[in-house]
Amino acid sequence: MSDQLLAIADELYGLPQDEFTPARDAKAKELKAGPDGKELAAAVKKLRKPSVAAWVVNLLVRRETEHVEQVVAVGTALREAQAGMDGAELRALTTQRRKLTAAVTQQARSQALDEGVKVTQSVADQVEATLTAAMLDPECAKAVRSGMVVAALSATGVDAVDVAAAVALPDALGFAATPVSADPAPPPELHVVPADENARKREEAETALAAAQETVDETASALTEATRAVEDLQARSLQLQSEIDELKRKVSELESSAEETDVELEEAEEAQGDARAAHAEAVKTRDAAQRAVDRMG
Fold it and tell me: How far apart are the first and last CA of the chain?
């Protein structure tokens, strides 16, 4: 069943994103109606719909296989070369790596636009992060090559990545997506009219507006969190200042009590001295009286 399931998944994840769910459900229904197809049908039904970023990556793998392989190959070369490089060389290679992933990401956006999908900057960032992960981590490279990514990937090259959670099937790791060509240009007899320049500019402007609005939403959320943090810290600061003032008041009271106690101590020590002198005088008088008594006896 594994090979058959992989073949079905390969076909499904090559479809436009909005066609995935109905095609998956129809396939599962078809299999369930066939002999001994219930187990395979259940497995097909469990296949997850890819996120927009994952769908763009899957599309790129099938449409631009050579470019994806170039990304993976550069990542392999970089990992092998890092051990003997100094900081300057590594920084230069990192810059080159970023330029390559940015360029391939732009190709991915173009491929998606050909399919009628406008890729926002946020989604493009996820696509680029996934391509970077394929460079940095061999397991991420396997996931990308499969063309069955269901969620964007992110890797540092140091920490392990939960690749299994980002692909449709565990067996997808090691599987290579079936390459496809973009739809050929329509034949001349269709008389396809080129897009009006104003329409093209409007489309670009709408894409920029959507990206700008997404940035506004993200920054608004960040601002809300930052404001909440400031308010919490202001409240904490006031509480601590109140506790400090209370402690200062107690310290002042204790210092005043200490001064009063010092004065009382001096007076008590003087009284002690006077009492000691009086006692010594009384003892002296008593001893004299005792001697007088003894002489008269």
Answer: 134
- Per the structure, how many domains does the chain have? 1
pTM of the model: 0.58
Q: What range defines the domain where residue 102 resides? A: 2-181
Chunked in runs of 10, what are the mean pLDDT values of the chain (297 residues)? Answer: 87 93 94 84 93 95 91 83 69 80 90 91 94 90 93 82 89 89 43 44 64 66 74 77 83 88 90 92 93 89
Task: Let me know if residue 162 belongs to a domain.
Answer: yes
**Is 143 within a domain?**
yes
Mind listing the pLDDT tens digit for each residue in 175-185?
Answer: 999 998 654 43
DSSP 21: H
Rg (CA), the chain: 41
Rounded distance between C-alpha atoms, residue 106 and residue 85, angstroms: 30
Which residues make Cβ contacts (< 8 Å) with residue 47, sequence separation at least 6? 9, 12, 24, 168, 169
User: Which residues lie across from 149 on neighbouring strands?
Assistant: 167
Query: Does 52 fall in a domain?
Result: yes
Domain assignment present for residue 206? The answer is no
Q: What phi, psi does 168 have (nearest 5°)? A: -65, -35
Contact call for residues 101 and 71 (beta carbons, < 8 A)? yes
